[in-house]
Amino acid sequence: MITLYYHRGACSTSNHFALEDAGIAYEAIEVHLDREDDPIAQKVRKLNPMAMTPVLVLEDGEVLTQNAATLSYIADLVPEKSLLPKPGTLARAQADSWMAFVASDLHPVIIEYIYKGFGETDAERARLVAFYEDRVARRLAVLEDRLTDRPYILGSDYSVIDGYALIVLNWSLPAGLSLDAYPCIRSYMDRIEARPTIQRVREAEGSITW
Ligand SMILES: N[C@@H](CCC(=O)N[C@@H](CS)C(=O)NCC(=O)O)C(=O)O
C-alpha cells in the first residue's frame, strides 16, 4: 500500500486528494516537521532530506517526493480515472506545463506574499509590498484568464493539478491576499471544494486554523 506523509492544509494535502480521487488503497500519516523529537518527523526527515512534505513511500519501499512527480505518479496509476491526460501525448505536455505553473510559479509566489511586510523601514516595506503584489497578480491573472471559459485548468475535466491549485490558493487567507478581483478563481475554488473526494479528505484531516 502507498503511504503518504502529509501536513494538514499544506501542499501535501493535494496528494491526499489525488489518492482519494484515485480510489486506491493508501495510508495517510500526518507529520509535524517542526517537532524535533517527534519520531514520525524524524522518519520523514530521513526519507526526504529536504525535510518537506509530500513524501510518498511506494509498495516496494521506494520514496517519491516533489508534488509534480508524486501527483503525476498517482494519476498514472489509474489511467481510467483521467486524473491527467495519457503520458506521451500533447495534452499531457500541456498538463505538465500547467503542473509546472502551479508548482514553480503559483506555489512560491503565494508563499512569498506572506513576507511582503518584512522590510525594516516604511519605504522598504512599501517597496516589498509593491514587488510582491505585482508578482502574485501576474500569476493570478494568468489563472483567472485560463478559468474564464473552462471549469478546470485543463478544461471540462478535473485533474490532480486542480487539487494542488486549490491548496495553494487556500493560502491566500493566511497570506492576507485578497482574491476579490478574481471571480473565476473564487468560483473555481468553491467548485473543487464541493467535490465529495475533497470533502472526505478535509474531514479526515480535520479543520485548519490559520
Ligand atoms: N518543491 C516541493 C515543495 C514542497 C513544500 O513546499 N512543502 C512544504 C509544505 S507546502 C513543506 O514541507 N514545508 C516544510 C518546511 O519548509 O519546513 C514540492 O513540490 O514537493
TrEMBL record:
Keyword Phosphoprotein carried by entry: no
A GO MF label: glutathione transferase activity
Sequence ranges assigned to domain GST N-terminal in this UniProt record: 1-82
UniProt keyword annotation of Transferase present: yes
Domain of life (superkingdom): Bacteria
Record-linked Gene3D superfamilies: 1.20.1050.10, Glutaredoxin
Keywords tagged on the record: Transferase
InterPro entries for this protein: Glutathione-S-Trfase_C-like (IPR010987), Glutathione-S-Trfase_C_sf (IPR036282), Glutathione_S-Trfase (IPR040079), Glutathione_S-Trfase_N (IPR004045), GST_C (IPR004046), Thioredoxin-like_sf (IPR036249)
EC number, as in UniProt: 2.5.1.18
Enzyme superclass (EC): transferase
Residue intervals of the GST C-terminal domain: 88-210
PROSITE patterns xrefs: GST_CTER, GST_NTER
Transmembrane segments: none
Pfam family name, one: GST_N_2
Listed name of the protein: Glutathione S-transferase
Organism field: Sagittula marina
